[in-house]
Amino acid sequence: MKHLSVFRRWARTARQLRLALLGLTLLFVTLVFSTLDFTLQLNRYTIASSQDPLQNTARSSIATLDSYLEQQMSYVQRAATAIASLPEGSSEEEVRQLLDEYFQRSDFVQMWAVSLDKQAISSQGISLDLSSEEALESAFGGQSGYSAVYTSLTYHDDRFYVYVPVRVSPEQPVTGAVLGVLKVDQLAQELTLYGLSDESCLAVFQPDGKLVYACPNLRRQLTNSDNFWDTEVGHILGSLPENEAGQFGTAGSDKDAVAWLCVPTGIRDWYLYQDVPQSALLATNAQETKLVMLMALKMLAASVIMLVLLAIYHRQREDQVQRAEDSLRTSNQLLAMALQHTAITLFVYDLNAYTMTSCAEPRPGEKAAGATEPALLVQNGTVAPQHSAGFLALFHQIRQTREPVQGDFLVRWPGQSEYRWTRVTLTAVLTPGQDPSHAIVTFEDITEERRREDELRQRANRDPLTNLFNRRGLRIRVNELLAQPDPPKTAALLMMDLDHFKEVNDILGHPIGDVLLREVARLLEQLAPAPGVLVRLGGDEFIVLLPGADWAQAEALAGRICDQLPGLASKLELGVPVGVSVGVHLFDPAAEPLNQAYQQADVALYAAKRNRGCWVSTRSLREL
């Protein structure tokens, strides 16, 4: 286990380097903050400080406005869909009922369904107020949206349309439109300024300066001058040229100065205006300088405290590592003693040098084994030649992935001449924050385990009385034949059962019947050697599969079985005349399923029994 000591030295060096690098980084950060320019202009700092809060507030306000309008738009869309789905020839009353249903859910003051010839049906039974022809023409053109704000001459208030076309499907032509009318005053109930201060202002307006919405402390006044707004005292906004829409800046001076933001909402061509008084932000260069100096002092103090804490932590960590290494050394010694009494051999594999070293302590007087490469174990015959590629692939895989790998190979252990099944496992040694540089390799003798697995596999595929294949073993053998590079094109299936076998069991007893079955199995092995597949289905039923046979070979074997099997009764002195009936079938294993071949052979078998002949083939049945 002495080879693991290299981990300790390397890890300690790495920890010291990380501590030094962290200390230099903290000192560099402190130096940067200590050399900051403390003469920043107040106006620049004010702009930088107010831009992000103003933009965050703008996003919140726009999201609220958009959510509200989308909800109202959904009522119009659903009403349009419902009207489009009405059967042809529906009455105006049916259309009005649909409008009433969605009108009651919405915030609309009016709602109309309009045909292409501008015949309108209102949920309230009132005439169509087309103050905005643009909205209706856009809907007839297949568009959905919001109209410009207009002043209704009939109702003497500001309002706008929410419009949607009516059509059965997107591919069908427009047959009309559904209009919903919203009053501008309703937006005031939905919009809330998530304000930067109580003196902040918020407004939604059109490019011509017409207000869509204004917060209470912003006095609405349209002018033809360069100014959009004249606000109350203390909130004077300078000129806002048209090409600055969507810009951020400041206006005014001293206590009347404001920082403002004007951005498009993404809803039609409406704009959102916000401002915040400069008095709500940092007011003087002195405050700015004080804040930056205070920040630098805090960073310096934090760096010193951090270095002290790191030194204390490093010392405690070194003590913990030393105790852990002492414990590991003791554990390694105990592990080496335990491994001497197991079938496991332990190695350390260097992922960079591609060599592995035994962890076993040398015996007294013996020289410690040196490092070796996995490829040498293949070259000197330690690993069986047929397993050399897979063995080397394990070591390549752990170098690439650093993930545990495992494989079973035939390995010749020291001092032995025969190969034994050995399970090889490679596990990378993980160190937090570092790439693995070594792996633990274990060689475990699993020969007995493989032998037991083979025995269990044989028992699952063999008949315990006769040691012939059972039905499951036959299927596996057929699949193996079909998986060969050149599978047989034909195969003969002989199905047989013994005549008068029940009398043997009833008169002489089942032990004598078992003796007869074993003798039948031995006779079949003599008459149909490999590659013939011999199967006992159960009871007195047997199957012989002849891969590659033709009709002549299959029928000749059936004749030999009929000639020689009855002699077993005389040989065993049973006193009961034992005969056999055989059904013969020739098939293509790749084209005809095994179950179907069973059925064909079974038909021939029962034909032989009915005719009291020894064997019958499916070929002879077809000729009849």
Automatic annotation (TrEMBL):
Gene3D superfamilies: 3.30.70.270, PAS domain. Its EC number is 2.7.7.65. SUPFAM superfamilies: Nucleotide cyclase, PYP-like sensor domain (PAS domain). InterPro entries: Biofilm_reg_signaling, GGDEF_dom, Nucleotide_cyclase, PAS-like_dom_sf, Rev_trsase/Diguanyl_cyclase. Keywords: Membrane, Nucleotidyltransferase, Transferase, Transmembrane, Transmembrane helix. One of its GO terms (molecular function) is diguanylate cyclase activity. NCBIfam families: GGDEF. This is Sensor domain-containing diguanylate cyclase. It comes from Allofournierella massiliensis. The lineage of its organism: Bacteria, Bacillati, Bacillota, Clostridia, Eubacteriales.
